[in-house]
Write a structure and sequence with these properties.
- This protein is α/β, with parallel strands linked by helices.
- The chain is built from 16 helices and 17 strands.
- The strands form four sheets. A six-stranded mixed beta sheet has the order 3-2-1-4-17-16, with helices on both faces. A six-stranded parallel beta sheet has the order 6-14-7-8-10-9.
- α10 packs parallel to α11.
- The longest helix has 18 residues.
- The radius of gyration is 23 Å and the shape is globular.
- Bound molecules: flavin-adenine dinucleotide and NADP nicotinamide-adenine-dinucleotide phosphate.
- NADP nicotinamide-adenine-dinucleotide phosphate binds next to α7 and β11.
Length: 436
Amino acid sequence: MSLRVAIIGSGPAGVYTAEALVKQAPGTVEVDVLERLPTPYGLVRYGVAPDHTSIKSIAGYLRRVLELPGVRFLGGVEFGRDVTVEDLRACYDAVIYCTGAMVDRRMGIPGEDLPGSVAATDFVNWYCGHPDMPADRFVLDSPEVAVIGVGNVAVDVVRVLAKTAEELRATDVPEEVLTRLAESQVKAIHMIGRRGPEHAKFTLKELRELGELVNADVCVRPDEAPISGDPAALSRQIRGNVEVIQAWAARTPAGRPRRLDVRFWMRPVEILGDGRVEALRLERTRLEDGRVVGTGEFETIPVGMVLRSVGYRSVPLPGVPFSEATMTVPNEAGRVREREYVAGWLKRGPTGVIGTNKSDAAETVRTLLADLDGLDPVRRADLDAVLAERGISPVTYRQWLSIEAAEADLARTLGRGERVKLPGLAAMLGALNRPE
Ligand SMILES: Cc1cc2nc3c(=O)[nH]c(=O)nc-3n(C[C@H](O)[C@H](O)[C@H](O)COP(=O)(O)OP(=O)(O)OC[C@H]3O[C@@H](n4cnc5c(N)ncnc54)[C@H](O)[C@@H]3O)c2cc1C
Ligand SMILES: NC(=O)c1ccc[n+]([C@@H]2O[C@H](COP(=O)([O-])OP(=O)(O)OC[C@H]3O[C@@H](n4cnc5c(N)ncnc54)[C@H](OP(=O)(O)O)[C@@H]3O)[C@@H](O)[C@H]2O)c1
């Protein structure tokens, strides 16, 4: 009798886990991938920047996994709302949680809740057309915007703000988002790092791309570019970042329509405004025993929007152990407790690129197969029957392909690229049963 496994979440971690199960236990495993959205691929679809089409094409690889014999996609089924731990333990021999890190981290400074102070998670969801985020959520009516953080998500956000709508026209951003980007009043973007160029988290390829923007001048203050210590002691990646930043510090702006100021050694201390964001107060920093401390030297920039891109965090799943300290599910090589496992960002925190989830998933599956080797199947119930009893009809893989086809139709109608995201959940559900 084959092993039946439920995977919760169809992002890279969930799909790589399905692949690892099929590869490591060929012909003896059936996998159901449960996903709260009607669409698979998690952040590959709703995180990776729309203009990074080559990275988005990883979806083509993930697609082939969902098409493997023995693997089923069940969209529109939310763990904690539609099914519980107890349901799944009754229906499967093992459950693997792969729900990622869906919410933003906060900065903990005064003014953070003012209108105009926004989590990058929300902004990313907006331009990626996530069904949780209405397309009319943002109006880019401020000439100056601050983006806090110098990681790769901040780089994505900055690039989307800096590019023209025309440059994004061939991407899959929803049409209303494209219209709002076309109406953007943004002239200056301030990207704020609380430490030095050698501490920034962005990767070299992503950083270099900012320097190639045709619509924006990238500026770095000469006094913020130097690093302390010997550059030769830095890793190749970080040395590369530092060289790019120092070259920008030596550039003369070419008078492009937008300007990107990349700042270092500045931390946000307060968001100011009467009823909405009007300015951001920054304090110059330095390191003391490896910790960032303020120097008492302040600067205020007149921004109408503050986008915090200071990292993501996971949320606890009902009935599943969770560590508030690490914001992950405590595990040993992927094992949470008997017959329950975890993979991806929920397992190790919101770091690493898409490919990191592949080896991570393989580790979890090795643990699971070793644990379950020789154990009798425990399942007594059938998830399809449980869902039917609750009036829930999961979105099938074939129905998801209908959504994809409707996106391609929309792109053709609008004269845009390969696909355009449908506006909202209702439009997606409306496309489920379109004739082939
Ligand atoms: C904005 C952004 C851009 C990125 N760009 C890149 C990039 O260009 N290149 C790169 O290599 N890496 C990139 N990354 C990193 C990469 O996306 C992650 O490493 C990867 O997506 C993590 O995979 P995951 O499966 O753990 O989480 P996710 O991709 O978040 O997948 C989690 C899935 O679980 C589902 N889910 C959540 N809760 C439930 C529930 N209760 N029930 C059922 N389903 C649920 C979600 O809907 C989602 O589909 C980016 C990350 C972000 C945040
Ligand atoms: N193209 C790509 O490959 C791509 C694209 C997007 C995302 N990703 C990956 O996805 C993961 C998440 O990316 P991310 O950008 O969200 O996170 P990240 O890489 O951890 O960067 C977070 C940034 O926020 C700063 N920060 C944190 N708290 C702060 C605070 N209170 N005030 C000011 N700054 C603060 C951090 O500075 P400190 O270092 O000082 O803490 C850091 O610069 C990363 O592994 C990233 O590489 C990859």
